[in-house]
Amino acid sequence: MDNSLTPLRVGALVQARMGSTRLPGKSLMPLPLGSATSVLSHVLARAQAAKQVHAVVVATSALPTDDAIAHAAQACGVAVYRGDEQDVLRRFNEAAQAHQLDVVVRLTGDNPAIDPGYLDRAVAAHLASKADYTLTTGLPLGANFEVLSQQALAAAFAQATAAEEREHVTPYLRRHPELFRLQTLDFGTAAVPATLRLTLDYPSDYALLHLLFSTLPPGFDLAAVGKLLRLHPWLAHINDQNTQVKV
């Protein structure tokens, strides 16, 4: 049998937990718009809207404090995998195996403005190039994401030893271009500035996201965000003082 003719199963694994040193419980903060009611529920709805994604799974820890994450995901009709709190690489690898995923889109539960259109474009490009790992750039912080093959994920799990490589899932892949086929997709566009923060780490991040989700229509895309910013440039300054830790 020619396995190359078998369609690959693409799954979005959404990393989420209640513990956060800067903003505890941020994934379940209320963000009402349409049928979604929390930051996490928006992430899940947008992942489900991507045509190239066949399954959406929340990967959270087995700690009792993350029961709330599991319950919220299940209320959205999304599967849950629970594993090691600190070794997120192990959690992702086990979740991918448990749900028989061939390709993994790595998302996090604090980025509610991901654009399904860009998800589809990235997955299509990843599959066409037969890359092991695809990183998107050029979009606002919180709107970029990663796509990786299950084989690359399993290799990273088996070989990564540094603490940050276990906690952040993909650094091992990026640090070893001699072992993996790496691809960067630059989605940069004048329509929406890459300097904009659409992630949730600080109260001022929440203030901007709440304003956007209160102003724009349900299912808004990044182009709509860019249009609103051109009308009201001051919006970008609500949280531009915040910094991001790079891994």
Automatic annotation (TrEMBL):
CDD domains in the record: GT2_SpsF
GO cellular component, one term: cytosol
One protein family per Pfam: CTP_transf_3
Segments crossing the lipid bilayer: none
SUPFAM superfamilies for the chain: Nucleotide-diphospho-sugar transferases
Protein name: Acylneuraminate cytidylyltransferase
Higher taxonomy: Bacteria, Pseudomonadati, Bacteroidota, Cytophagia, Cytophagales
